[in-house]
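Hi team,

Filling in the usual template for the complex we talked about on Friday. All components are listed, including any nucleic acid strands or ligand strings, so the model treats them as one assembly.

SUBMITTER: L.P.
PURPOSE: interface mapping
COMPONENTS: two
RESIDUES: 542
SEQUENCES:
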Amino acid sequence: MAANIGTASRTDENRFGSEALKLLIVEDEALVAMLVEDALTLHGHHVTGIADTVAAAIDLVEADRPDLVLCDVKLADGDSGITAAQLIADRGIPCVFLSGNCPHQGGHPLVIGCISKPFRAGTLGAAVHAAYVIAQGGRPGDTPAALRLYNAQ
Amino acid sequence: MAPSTTFTLAPLPFVDDVIAPVVGDPDATRRYLALIAAATDRLMGADDPALMIEALFELIRDELRLDLFFNFRRDGDVVQLEACGGLTPAQQRAVMGLDVGGSLCGRAMRERRVLHLAGIQRSDDPAAAFVRSVGIDVYLCMPLFYGERLLGTLSFGRRAAAPFTDEEQRLMSLLCHYVALAKHRLRIEQALREGIETQTRLLAELNHRVRNALQVAIGLVSNEVRSAADPVTRAALARAAERLQVLASAHRPLYATAEPGLVDLAALFGDVIGQLRGDEAAPEIIVPEPVAVPIERAVAAALLLDTLLTGPTAVPRIVMTMCRDGGNEILRIAFDGVGWERGVDLVGTDRLISRLCHQLRATLTSEGSGCLILVMPHDGGEHRHRVPD
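RESULT (copied from the run log):
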């Protein structure tokens, strides 16, 4: 019992444990977007949409208010995923980069971290969950190595 | 006894300042101007820093009654002889082993000043030991600067006991500034050449690794195809291997062209059709002008073609045309062959086709029986065409 209490005080697994999240994918490569969508759906999450430009991402964020956004760094039409992430974070929605070339910094407290490509579909769910727990002010029990945090304590 | 020494800073003299003192001597003025013009020509056109200084020395040695020169180059903390002239082979070997720090050139670099010394043969200055040993009596050593950066020194010596006049010093100071500029240019060009060579090596390595990784991936999936017992599983894995092959085809020519980010779309389409239908089913592809597209769009277009080819369709005749719509360049691709008009129906039902069309900002329409039209922006820019939902 004591051990359980101790675990609960160190992390916030129980608070956010099995929550199905509403997620937005911002990705310009059709196949990668499909892969991410399938992986997240498999983990029980709901993908609210897929955007491939900054404008489309903001439209979908404002329409659906997702719990978390996964955002590539390089988007269609020459758009920047870094700009998209900033604008999404400005609207109070946490964001995680999903990129082969992770930025060094998030630039906003709600830009939680970056998942490096290529990623394993199996770790994506755990990484998203950990990022969401952190965004809610909690401490995840297990942060996958694939998720690089920008404000690691 | 120390030689008589003049220390002067090295401001950049104007040509007018150089020739002003000899204005009263029209011949000297003409000679100085001719020297400056010839020296500038050689320095700006040079491609070897040592030969450049040797050519300059030959150009000015008679006019300025010079017997020798040294040019030391400074790279970080390392100083080395770049060129010298007017020495015997034995003296050249001796100067190669000179302790530059303890020499007059080392002093000029440390103090970042011009040194003009006369009466060296009568002096006991240890720093002048080498030039004294080769019979020099008058010596002018100038640091070479590019901005604040010290590039080395250029020094000239006379065996005759005749110090350099003010106008000679100004002329040589001007020439040294030109030398510094020319050396800086050569260093920049060398750095650029090395950068390009590095880039070429990296590109070749990248080419190898990308192709190799894709080939390994194709091999892995193909191996699973062979070991799968279930025909449905085998077919699915074979499709996966086939699509990986499409990716590999798009990357194959990528790093071997003058524009490494672009892919010849017509050649890629021919390759994809050849893979799926066999080389004997070579399609007729009509392209009035070359169509090169960025790799991301080439991959998406090739996967779209691959997906369309999996249906009951004949090998199509393909016509690619370019047109302008407002400020945008549009690529129109017509696929003409039995069954191709049915591709339009797949936009709403096939998830992959729908996503690829969205990525390409492309529309698919049919034009009569057996003809499918794909329209998309050529440059992948901000063309606002109707995008399938």
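MY TAKE: Confidence is low (pLDDT under 50) at residues 6-10, 380-389 of chain B. Chain B has two domains: 4-192, 260-377.

Thanks, L.
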